[in-house]
Structures are given as C-alpha cells and as structure tokens.
UniProtKB/TrEMBL annotation:
<feature type="binding site">
    <location>
        <begin position="68"/>
        <end position="71"/>
    </location>
    <ligand>
        <name>NADP(+)</name>
    </ligand>
</feature>
<dbReference type="Pfam" id="PF03807">
    <property type="entry name" value="F420_oxidored"/>
</dbReference>
<dbReference type="InterPro" id="IPR000304">
    <property type="entry name" value="Pyrroline-COOH_reductase"/>
</dbReference>
<dbReference type="GO" id="GO:0004735">
    <property type="term" value="F:pyrroline-5-carboxylate reductase activity"/>
</dbReference>
<dbReference type="InterPro" id="IPR008927">
    <property type="entry name" value="6-PGluconate_DH-like_C_sf"/>
</dbReference>
<keyword id="KW-0028">Amino-acid biosynthesis</keyword>
<feature type="domain" description="Pyrroline-5-carboxylate reductase dimerisation">
    <location>
        <begin position="159"/>
        <end position="260"/>
    </location>
</feature>
<protein>
    <recommendedName>
        <fullName>Pyrroline-5-carboxylate reductase</fullName>
        <ecNumber>1.5.1.2</ecNumber>
    </recommendedName>
</protein>
<comment type="pathway">
    <text>Amino-acid biosynthesis; L-proline biosynthesis; L-proline from L-glutamate 5-semialdehyde: step 1/1.</text>
</comment>
<keyword id="KW-0963">Cytoplasm</keyword>
<dbReference type="GO" id="GO:0055129">
    <property type="term" value="P:L-proline biosynthetic process"/>
</dbReference>
<dbReference type="GO" id="GO:0005737">
    <property type="term" value="C:cytoplasm"/>
</dbReference>
<dbReference type="InterPro" id="IPR029036">
    <property type="entry name" value="P5CR_dimer"/>
</dbReference>
<keyword id="KW-0560">Oxidoreductase</keyword>
<comment type="similarity">
    <text>Belongs to the pyrroline-5-carboxylate reductase family.</text>
</comment>
<dbReference type="InterPro" id="IPR036291">
    <property type="entry name" value="NAD(P)-bd_dom_sf"/>
</dbReference>
<keyword id="KW-0641">Proline biosynthesis</keyword>
Amino acid sequence: MHKITIIGSGNIGLSLAKGLVKSGQYAPGDIMLTRRTIQHLSKEVEQGFLANADNANAVIGADIIVLAILPQQLKAVMEELKSSITENQLVISVVSGVTCAQIKEVLGQQTQVVRAMPNTAIAIGESMTCISTDNASQHAIQQVEQLFETVGAVVVIAEDLMTSATALCACGIAFFLRSIRAASQGGVEIGFHAHDALKMAIQTAKGAADLLLLTQNHPESEIDKVTSPKGCTIAGLNEMEHNGFSSAFIKGIKLSALKAGGLYNE
C-alpha cells in the first residue's frame, strides 16, 4: 500500500484523506496530513491519521505527495519541500491554475507531476476528478487514476483544459448547490415548510442527475418527457430562460475559469 502525504489539510485535503479511508483502500495510518496549526488536526489524529506541522519532514518516506494548498501559498511551500523530494516520489497537485512545468521549475525537472482537480464530493466518494500531466509516465497517470477512482469518477484531459475543469467540476459543486437552494426557496414561496422544501429539492436534483447517469440520455430528451403542450413545466422553464437562467449559469462558469487561471500569479 502506498504511503501518502497530503500537504495542506483544508477542505479538499481532508476530503481526499477521508474519502480514501471511506473507500476501504487506505487506512488512516497510511496518510500523513500537514497543517501550519497542527492543533486543528486533533480530531483526525484521534481517527488514526498521522499529522505533521513540518512539510519538509512530512514528505520523507512518502510514495505519493499531494499538494492541496492555495495557489498563492504554493511557491513558498515548494521551496520548503524541494530538498526533501526524490525522483521516486509522485507529486499530485490539486492546486488551481498552476501547470506541471511551473511546479517542476521549483521542485526539479526530474519530478513526476500529475495534476488532479477533484471536488468536495470526494468526501462521500462522489467526486468528479479531472487529471492531466505534461510528460509524467503512463504508470504515474494510472496510479493517479486508481487513487481518485476510489473516491468518484475520473476523466483524463489535456493540461490546457485544467482551469476549465476547475470551473465546471470544482466550482460547479457550489453552482449546483445554489440552484438547489433556489429551488427550495421557490418551494417555500408556494407553500411548503423550509425543511420539507429543501428535502424535496435535494431529492429531485439527485433524481435528475441519476436519471442522466443511468440512461446516458441527453438532458433535453428527459426534459421533453416532462413538458406537455401548454403545460406548467414548459411555462416554468421558459420563464426561467426569459430571466437568463442558462445564460447566467454559463457566464458564471466562464468567469470562474478565467479567475482560476490567474490565482497562482496573484
């Protein structure tokens, strides 16, 4: 079993750690977590995870090193790590908007780097993770695929699409959550108690997603099944479209992709 060090135990780092353990493929003792304030990891240490406040020390002996920090912190953290990382270790970066080449500029050209962009649903084994590399080996790519397949679905993409993947999949979680929240608020306005409206909106959204996953149909073909002539569904859909529903969603995704690409240099 691989030993994994996760540098930066914020939402994504902890979600990955917990998702890997939940999958049954890894034990907490196989995973080292780092955080500047180590006291914030006391609950994870009780669960059996290893913890370390010293990033350079934490990567020694690891097979896989996951960089799960903010883009603005990455340069300083890589400077700490570069003397400890060896050619045999695989570096996985989940940092938005930072290329493999930029990472190797600091860690060394011999470093095997694969980028991964999961989302927070990784904590329940339902992530949509996109992975890419510039020139890491096929074996390294397969390792990363296997790692993230334990916690959801994986697509291998070209590296120049990684900031787009960030917007659609990682930021996308928040976009779909906001749409569920809006649906529940609509439910309250038409007469339901808030807790009932939220439960109904959540299950309806889950049903819609599962319908597409299981049937492999296009969304429009499923929409056609719900829209009858002069009916209430088409009236509601058209009212949303007149108010810019699809347009606002698309514009939000485009702006998030633009922002994700510039974070490292801010």
